Amino acid sequence: MDKRDGFYGDLDQFDRKIIDAVSEDARISVTDLAEKIGLSKTPVNARLKRLVQEGYVLGFRAVLNPQKLGLDHVAFAEVKLSDTRESALNAFNAAVRKIPEVEECHMIAGRFDYLLKVRTQNIRRYREVLGEKISSLPHVASTSTSVAMQSVKEH
């Protein structure tokens, strides 16, 4: 069984193996996938299509190298809102999704409301994104920033 056993709900061992394989290599061919999990191509293809249709697999994407792209500055912005009613949260959520530099946004239970992972070229660009985009999001009362010195594990 996989180290994440228990996180798969009602999926059988073959479905779990398919999910593990495509999460490691989204470009794996159906032929290689079938060989890896021990089924023929036709049932593997059908299972993969079903996993996508049922929402277990949301999509396939390329994992880019941020350093090669000149985007190796990572900062985490803690955001405190002035209003946490549902309409305010919805307005913030919709607006933050439009900021391309924000890689991740999580609502937090704690001393602040949201934690944003922001990736930019450098600290100067981060300051611009923080001042011009993040601070002007709906209902933002305050922000606090922590800068990552090294990424030990991502994705």
Automatic annotation (TrEMBL):
Query: What's a BP term from Gene Ontology annotated to this protein?
Result: response to amino acid
What molecular functions are annotated in GO for this chain?
sequence-specific DNA binding
* SMART domains the record matches: HTH_ASNC (SM00344)
InterPro entries noted in UniProt: ArsR-like_HTH, AsnC-type_HTH_dom, Dimeric_a/b-barrel, Tscrpt_reg_AsnC-like, Tscrpt_reg_AsnC/Lrp_C, Tscrpt_reg_HTH_AsnC-type_CS, WH-like_DNA-bd_sf, WH_DNA-bd_sf
Q: Which Pfam families match?
A: AsnC_trans_reg, HTH_24
Q: Which UniProt keywords apply?
A: Activator, DNA-binding, Transcription, Transcription regulation
Q: Report the domain of life of the source organism.
A: Bacteria
Cellular component annotations (GO), alphabetically ordered: cytosol
Does the UniProt entry include the keyword Cytoplasm?
A: no
The protein's matches in SUPFAM superfamilies, at most eight in alphabetical order, are given as: Dimeric alpha+beta barrel (SSF54909), Winged helix' DNA-binding domain (SSF46785)
* Residues covered by the HTH asnC-type domain: 11-72
Protein name in the entry: Lrp/AsnC family leucine-responsive transcriptional regulator
